[in-house]
Amino acid sequence: MLLTEPHSMVTFNGPFEEGSKIKMKLNHVGGEGSTPISWSASATNPNRLSIEPACGLLEYNEPKYVVITCHSFDFANEDIANDYLKFEWRNTTEKDTDYSCNTLSDGLFRRKLLHVLYNP
Questions:
Q1: Listed residue (30, 54, 57, 59) closest to 43, CA to CA
Q2: pLDDT at residue 105, rounded to an integer
Q3: Is pLDDT above 70 for 98?
Q4: How far does Cα 113 stand from its chain's mean position?
Q5: Nearest 5°: phi and psi at 58?
Q6: Rounded mean pLDDT of 79-93?
Q7: DSSP assignment of 66-102
């Protein structure tokens, strides 16, 4: 299972004329002896939000950090109601050393959505 910190929402504080960044922790908490998970992340509004790195492999209990960037935008004139970060993951085998961001395109995977809040 993929655990994110923060767990359910991400908040950016204004002003939004300049971009800002926050760090998010990802952790695989599937249990000792679990196989790695492959994960990918995206935003519903990629012009406003980006995630770096956008994908990777995560070993059990070896956290990784991603940087969420909120690019500058006009807060008063933009529709921000449906901004979410989407994390998808699936179990992999120990043979998956050739990982690419396309790994999640096939097969069964899990998904987690985090709402993005903007505090003017």
A1: 54
A2: 57
A3: no
A4: 9
A5: -130, 120
A6: 91
A7: EEEEE----GGGS--TT-EEEEEEEE--TT--S--GG
| CA distances, 16 to each of 11, 19, 91 (Å) | 12, 6, 38
Q: What six digits make up the tokens of 14?
A: 């204004």
Distance CA 10, CA 33 (A): 31
Domain 2-119 has CATH 3.40.50.1240: no
pTM of the complete model: 0.88
Spatial distance between the Cα atoms of 63 and 54, rounded to a whole number of angstroms: 15
Section 47-75 average pLDDT: 95
> How buried is 31 (Cβ within 10 angstroms: 0-12 exposed, 13-18 middle, 19+ buried)?
exposed
**Is 3 or 32 the better-scoring residue by pLDDT?**
3
Strand partners, 89: 39, 110
Query: How many CA atoms within 13 Å lie on the side-chain side of 24?
Result: 27
Count of Cβ atoms closer than 10 Å to residue 37 Cβ = 23
